[in-house]
Automatic annotation (TrEMBL):
<dbReference type="InterPro" id="IPR014757">
    <property type="entry name" value="Tscrpt_reg_IclR_C"/>
</dbReference>
<dbReference type="Pfam" id="PF09339">
    <property type="entry name" value="HTH_IclR"/>
</dbReference>
<protein>
    <submittedName>
        <fullName>Transcriptional regulator, IclR family</fullName>
    </submittedName>
</protein>
<dbReference type="InterPro" id="IPR036388">
    <property type="entry name" value="WH-like_DNA-bd_sf"/>
</dbReference>
<keyword id="KW-0805">Transcription regulation</keyword>
<feature type="domain" description="IclR-ED">
    <location>
        <begin position="67"/>
        <end position="233"/>
    </location>
</feature>
<dbReference type="InterPro" id="IPR050707">
    <property type="entry name" value="HTH_MetabolicPath_Reg"/>
</dbReference>
<keyword id="KW-0804">Transcription</keyword>
<dbReference type="InterPro" id="IPR005471">
    <property type="entry name" value="Tscrpt_reg_IclR_N"/>
</dbReference>
<dbReference type="Pfam" id="PF01614">
    <property type="entry name" value="IclR_C"/>
</dbReference>
<dbReference type="InterPro" id="IPR029016">
    <property type="entry name" value="GAF-like_dom_sf"/>
</dbReference>
<keyword id="KW-0238">DNA-binding</keyword>
<feature type="domain" description="HTH iclR-type">
    <location>
        <begin position="7"/>
        <end position="66"/>
    </location>
</feature>
<dbReference type="InterPro" id="IPR036390">
    <property type="entry name" value="WH_DNA-bd_sf"/>
</dbReference>
Length: 233
């Protein structure tokens, strides 16, 4: 269960949070990931759900809850602070889900989101870890990664080196049903004060609604949002 504080119930609760952060999961999988007895895992997950640290979807699986986002928002992270105004503005322009990703090794982590209030959405909870091998956000983060990281990603990626060259040339990436069937997305790089790409901002939604060329539709707005984040850093 990772590090131990000496406070048993706290360590177990943190183990449950970390397990769910890997991927949404039901009780059986939660027990497998944590090594906790079924009754203990269930009791902790339900308790964390009461405090909104976890939430349970219609499929019965637990996911990171809204309270985690609220707590994370209290930390001093300039990019997350800047996203609090930029992401909702982009969501309102597009009417679609907006995410902000950082790369962590061979994964990307969703660090901020803005969701439309209703309708079919591509919801990616804050804290979700997604692969670097598919999706427009992965392409952007891979395109501006160091050569060694790029080579490691490309071994299993659905895209190739030519795609990354094209992403760097035009300044944004798009994907159609790469990470998830029926979902399209477009992403752009976010640069820090020194001009280094440190994140990717994405717009995603159902292919049937945003079409098979989301870049043609949203790239300009997305690049504007990426620049707005850059200015605030």
């Amino acid at each position: 269960m990772g590090q131990h504080s000496g406070i048993g119930v706290l360590d177990k609760a943190v183990a449950v949070l970390r397990a769910v952060a890997q991927d949404p999961c039901g009780l059986a999988e939660l027990c497998t990931r944590t090594g906790l007895p079924r009754a203990t895992a269930h009791r902790l997950a339900v308790g964390l759900e009461v405090h909104r640290l976890l939430r349970r979807g219609a499929d019965g699986r637990w996911r990171p809850g809204a309270a985690l986002t609220e707590l994370a928002g209290a930390t001093s992270d300039p990019l997350i602070e800047a996203s609090a105004t930029v992401l909702p503005r982009l969501r309102d322009i597009t009417g679609e889900s907006v995410q902000l990703y950082r790369r962590d090794g061979m994964q990307r982590i969703c660090i901020a989101t803005a969701e439309p209030p209703s309708g079919l959405r591509d919801t990616v909870p804050v804290g979700s870890r997604l692969p670097m091998t598919a999706g427009s956000g992965a392409k952007v983060l891979a395109a501006w990664s160091d050569p060694g990281t790029q080579r490691a990603i490309l071994v299993d990626a659905v895209f190739g080196e030519r795609t990354l060259l094209e992403v760097r040339r035009r300044g944004w990436a798009q994907s159609i049903a790469e990470r998830e069937a029926g979902v399209a997305s477009v992403s752009a790089p976010v640069r820090d004060a020194n001009g280094v790409v440190t994140a990717a901002i994405s717009v995603s939604g159902p292919v049937e609604r945003i079409g098979r060329k989301p870049g043609a539709r949203w790239a300009a707005d997305l690049l504007g949002a990426a620049e707005a984040l850059h200015v605030k850093l």
